[in-house]
Amino acid sequence: MDNFYILIYTYTFAGAGIAILPVLNHLPTLWLCDYGESPGNRHSAPRFSLWPWGFLWGTLLGYEAMFFGTQSQWLYGTAVLMILWVLIQSAMIDRKFGILPDQHTILIALLSPLVVIPDLFASGDACHIHTSWTSPLWGSLAGGGVLLLIALLGRLIYKKESIGFGDIKLLFALGLSAGPAGSLFIICAASWGIALNYGLASLFHRRNIPGERPMGPWIAAAAGLWFLLHA
User: Fold this and answer.
1) Residue 17 and residue 224: Cα distance in Å, rounded?
2) Which residues of 191-230 are buried (b: 16+ CB within 10 A; e: fewer)?
3) Burial level of 54, CB count in 10 A (0-12/13-18/19+)?
4) Is 35 in a helix, a strand, or coil?
5) For 22-57, what is each residue's pLDDT tens digit?
6) How buried is 144 (Cβ within 10 angstroms: 0-12 exposed, 13-18 middle, 19+ buried)?
7) DSSP codes, 93-124
8) CA distance 187 to 140
9) Per residue in 127-186, pLDDT tens?
10) Distance separating alpha carbons of residues 26 and 19, to the nearest angstrom
C-alpha cells in the first residue's frame, strides 16, 4: 500500500510540474510587467513551450516527490514541492521578462507555515530546519536583509542598481521557510552560480555578454538544493 501512495504522490507532482507551462501561459499579462510598464507582444500567450520545459519540470518534481515519499516525508515534502512549484514559475518569468511577480512572492510567504509549523512541533531527527519560533523571522531578515545590504553597497560603488528589488522581496519571503542558515546558503549559492555562469560566458563568448543577468533562476535552484539537503 505504501508503494501505491508513493506512486500516486509522484504522478501528482509530476503532473503539477507539467501544468506549470499552461499556468504561465494563462497568467494575467500585468503580472509580467514591471511598475509603469505597458504590456507588449512578448507578453502575449503562448509565452512558454511545453517542450522541453514541461518534461523537465514534470521529471524534476516527480523525482523529488518520489524521494520524499520513500522517506515518508509527506508533510515536509508537500510543502517544499508547493514552494518549488511557485519558485519555478517565478524563475521562468524572471528569465524571460526580467521581473519577479509580487503575487508569486506573496504566495511563497503564505506557504511558509507549511514548512515551519510541522518543524516546530517535531522532535529529534524529524526536525528539518526550524527549532524555534524566531527562526522564520531571522531567516527572512538574513535573506532579504543581507541582499538589501549588498544592493545598497552595489549602488554606492557602481552608482547604479546591482540587485533588483524583486530579488530582495523574494528572499524576505523565502527566508521564512529556509531559516537563517538556508537564506545565507541560497544567497551564496545563487551568487556563485551567477559568477560561474558569467565567467564561462566570458571565456567562450567574449562579445555580446549581457551586463545584467536575472538572479531569480539561481535563487530557485539554490532553494531547491537547500530543501532537498534537509529532507
Assistant:
1) 14
2) bebbeeeeeeeeeeeeeeeeeebbbbbbbbbbbbebbeeb
3) middle
4) coil
5) 999 999 999 999 887 888 888 887 889 999 999 999
6) buried
7) HHHHHS---HHHHHHHHHHTHHHHHHHHT--G
8) 12
9) 889 989 999 999 999 999 999 999 999 888 887 777 889 999 999 999 999 999 999 999
10) 11
Q: How many CA atoms lie within 13 A of 132 on its CB side?
A: 6
* SS3 assignment for 144-205: HHHHHHHHHHHHHHHCCCCCCHHHHHHHHHHHHHHHHHHHHHHHHHHHHHHHHHHHHHHHHC
For residue 167, give the nearest of 105, 88, 225 by alpha carbon: 105
The answer to whether 191 and 143 have CB atoms below 8 angstroms apart is: no
C-alpha cell at position 120: 516546530
Closest by Cα among 85, 86, 191 to 143: 191
Name the nearest CA neighbour of 28 among 112, 116, 102.
102
**How many whole angstroms separate alpha carbon 148 and alpha carbon 167?**
9
d(CA 137, CA 36): 32
Question: For residue 207, what are the contacts with CB-CB under 8 A and spacing of at least 6?
Answer: none
Q: Is 127 helix (H, G, I), strand (E, B) or coil?
A: coil
One-letter amino acid identity for 183? S
Asked if residue 47 lies in contact with residue 33, where contact means CB atoms within 8 angstroms, the answer is no
